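Q: Please design a sequence for this.
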């Protein structure tokens, strides 16, 4: 197991390198740069200010060839100050818009995105697993039909549409609007939970449907095995048979589905944070893309990519815990 973990960690290095190259090239393929955005904003505001494009490109480092810019990002080429400082040295650069280091911005925004994502993931499982198990145990009953319909509905309804309805209709009917100011957990725990609860539920519904259907399918498959029928024949209670014998084996594909939903969770946080005005990494990356703030976008996307690789490793290690027959060679 130790050799397997070390091998997976070493494989993350070339993967992260390839991801960084793709992100760097994709960002440069987006039409325009920060200087174009500045010129457009000045034109809209009718300010008679002339910008020296060559000077701005030199200050931002955009005048250098792409290979040199990428080397500066990694930290293998000297930056504008003549220092070797980049990702390899733990420095993601400085935001062109905020004039703060990307690391500082990440530490400010990570708690919001982490809280929203974890709450959404937990709520999704609390919704999906009980309904999926109940639907399997009561196959072809009204409860099963309702559960399956709810799963299809949660898969079909777009999260951004549901989030918009949650904001618009309560404000029209009851004059209620969610808070647009961040309530920190340390300042007001209950206020913080109330603020994140509705966005987290909206985020959870988008993930619950797939997990619900997989839980139902695998539970149906497991409870038809001989050892489950033997447990029933012994007279064991239904709750004991399901919890001790069925669920552990049924959860292996379910864990896979949950792991595959993490990218959906990350994409969902970007949309939900924008709609509910939550100051997290999702909202920051949208704002940074609009102004072509390359260091921030690269830093956040690389952080998400490495996080996904670590989560996939944790999911794979979970298989061995659920089923001792699964061993990493």
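A: Design:
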């Amino acid at each position: 197991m130790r050799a397997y973990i070390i091998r997976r960690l070493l494989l993350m290095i070339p993967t992260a390198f390839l991801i960084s190259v793709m992100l760097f090239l994709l960002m440069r393929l987006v039409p325009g740069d920060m200087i174009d955005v500045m010129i457009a904003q000045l034109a809209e505001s009718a300010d008679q200010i002339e910008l020296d494009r060559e000077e701005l490109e030199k200050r931002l480092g955009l005048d250098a060839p792409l290979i040199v810019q990428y080397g500066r990002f990694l930290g293998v080429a000297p930056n504008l100050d003549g220092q070797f400082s980049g990702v390899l040295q733990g420095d993601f650069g400085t935001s062109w818009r905020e004039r703060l280091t990307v690391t500082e911005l990440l530490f400010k925004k990570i708690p919001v995105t982490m809280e929203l994502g974890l709450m959404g993931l937990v709520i999704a499982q609390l919704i999906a697993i009980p309904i999926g198990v109940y639907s399997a145990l009561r196959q072809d009953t009204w409860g099963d039909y309702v559960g399956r319909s709810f799963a299809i509905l949660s898969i079909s309804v777009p999260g951004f549409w549901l989030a918009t309805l949650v904001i618009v209709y309560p404000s029209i009917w009851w004059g209620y609007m969610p808070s647009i100011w961040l309530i920190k957990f340390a300042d007001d725990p209950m206020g913080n939970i109330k603020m994140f609860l509705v966005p987290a539920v909206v985020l959870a519904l988008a993930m619950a449907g797939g997990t619900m259907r997989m839980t139902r399918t695998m539970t149906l498959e497991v409870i038809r095995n001989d050892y489950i029928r033997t447990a029933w024949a012994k007279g064991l209670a239904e709750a004991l048979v399901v919890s001790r014998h069925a669920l552990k084996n049924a959860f292996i594909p379910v864990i896979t589905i949950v792991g595959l939903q993490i990218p959906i969770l990350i994409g969902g946080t970007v949309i939900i944070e924008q709609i509910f005005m939550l100051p997290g990494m999702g909202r920051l990356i949208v704002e940074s893309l609009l102004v072509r703030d390359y260091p921030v976008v690269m830093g956040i996307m690389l952080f998400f990519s490495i996080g996904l690789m670590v989560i996939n490793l944790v999911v794979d290690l979970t298989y061995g815990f659920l089923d001792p027959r699964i061993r990493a060679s």
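Q: Thanks. Anything notable?
A: The mean pLDDT is 82. DSSP finds 13 helices and no strands in the chain.
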